[in-house]
Here is the input.
Amino acid sequence: MSDSDWPIDLRGVHKTYNRKIKALRGVDVRVGAGEIFGLLGPNGAGKSTLVKIMMTVVLPNRAEGTILGQPIGHKPTLRRVGYLSEDHKFPPYLTGAQVLDFYARLSKVPADKRKRETGVWLERMGMSKWADTPVSQYSKGMLQRIGIAQALLHEPDVILLDEPTDGVDPIGRKQIREILVELRQAGKTVFINSHILSELEMVCDRVAILVHGQVARQGTVEELTAHSLSYQVTTADGIDSLRDEIVRLGAEVADRTVTIKGNDAGAVNKIIDFLRSKEIMIESVRPTRWSLEDVFIDAASSLNEEG
Ligand SMILES: Nc1ncnc2c1ncn2[C@@H]1O[C@H](COP(=O)(O)OP(=O)(O)OP(=O)(O)O)[C@@H](O)[C@H]1O
Ligand SMILES: [Mg+2]
Here is the structure.
């Protein structure tokens, strides 16, 4: 891919608030078309700041790179970007349908299409019944559903979602994931901020973990968890008396479980052969790996230690 083929291509993004809070300290992020990218990080890591810089809501101290091939801050390009902010506030007197119409109008969607798409998106987000109710009467999850519809209705090419499933129930979350997958299939570029890791794990092609304004890890979920592969052999019989010999074979023992690190079937078979030679009954052999949450906690704590 050439440089301009990355719809989101950010380099060296720095942001210091009030001359002292270093929210971003040199962030590089690239996201391709047809890719769902997840930005993870603890509270205050700088996730929202990065998205706000892309939306020109916040001015960076320094930032290179492009959005849809244009420098950050290029106003006409923003019309091709959909955005759900973390603290969106819609005018409370507007109904859900009016909110969608209002934002679509800002994005210059023609009137007939606005009318049609408003109906389509209210339906998709399970909000048709509430279309004519003022948003001041909506629950958190309902506001979020309208917010997502608002971000997508004008068919943007780049979609930035800041904590999209915040306050949304499990059924709504699943619907949102399905929509994200459709966007990917349509070749859109989706960028999600979240701390709900299990969810990102399900849909994201790549993730970056942001800690203290710096990218601590970046890659596919597969890549980030590969080093943590191991096998667990569980026995029906106690193996305490064999502990030393098992450790000598390169495995760890805890209670009736032997853990063999890595992805080496040969090593696992060696342990099984050994246990069988001692007439130990094997109950199960399971491959395991870290979840994204384990990687996240590891990255957050290692950078915290560095300060
Ligand atoms: N307008 C602002 N003025 C001053 N400091 C700010 C402002 N906005 C954010 N910050 C600070 O910048 C840092 C990064 O904040 P940011 O909102 O980007 O984090 P985040 O990763 O989105 O956190 P969360 O998960 O809580 O949403 C924090 O230390 C925050 O206090
Ligand atoms: Mg945030």
